[in-house]
Design goal:
Pfam families: Na_K-ATPase. By secondary structure, the chain is mostly beta strands. 0% of the residues lie in helices and 21% in strands.
Amino acid sequence: VRNNPKRSCQFNRTVLANCSGISDRFYGYDRGQPCILIKLNRVIGMLPGKDGQSPYVTCGAKREDSDKIGQLEYYPPNGTFNLMFYPYYGKKAQVNYTQPLVAVKFLNASLNTDINIECKINSNTLSAGSERDKFAGRVSF
């Protein structure tokens, strides 16, 4: 924005559709189709939007659990952190900023079973497995 360069769009949770918590306050857990919400903290060296590419999330089962995970759905589609929510300059410069989220819905994961999941951020500016932090841009649960 020319007159206000420290401005970005407001995130609205309706883009999370079935995982927004608006129509399903239990986020799918009561039906065995849980939604996991993922936020993107600061990742050193990652610049959202370089070459016009938005960062996006992918999730998968770790090792022997690949047959237990089932099908996944991402909200917004493709698990994308839209560039309209960037840049973020801090809470003093952007008082009403709401951090964007991505939701992952597990459609038919094995019930009553431990499943090791890893989700990672994919970006053309994030190098895989840096020596400083080999887990940068990843979360396991």
